[in-house]
Amino acid sequence: MDKSITIAFGAALLWVALAVSAQQPIVYPAKGQSPQQQQKDEGECHVWAKQTTGIDPAALAAAPAQPQAQQPTGDRLRGAARGAAGGAIIGEIASDDAGRGAAVGAVAGTMAGGARARQKQQAQTQQAQAQQQQKINTYYRALGACMEGRGYTIK
Length: 155
What we know:
Order of helices and strands: HEHHHHE
Helix content: over 70%
Number of domains: 1
Number of helices: 5
Mean pLDDT: 76
Oligomer: single chain
Strand content: under 5%
Strand order of the largest sheet: 1-2
Largest sheet: 2 strands, antiparallel
Radius of gyration: 26 Å
């Protein structure tokens, strides 16, 4: 249990770090560009960054990060089988009722298998979100490069 909490905490920290690092860059008109010129330059740089990277941050923001659809993994079925086998053995030893032990073990195993399936799904979702953030970071790096080339300071 401690291992899963540690993994979840680490994944949450990674997600926060990625979210902070993916924030839109701050642009300062270092050469005294007017607000109108800055707006024009930002628009042109947006088009250039989108064409260069193939990434549209508006489209990424509108589409939630979802992992690719996956086939059922059989975690619940395998858990039920393992639980039934273990429960039958324990039921036979404890009360000479292997059938009841198998039924109890199957239920417990199904629940454990479901928990493993949910953990896998959560990890895949976090990976998809991290990939989405990485794409946004790439776009913002390109936007920043364009704006720096036009005489702006980027932070």
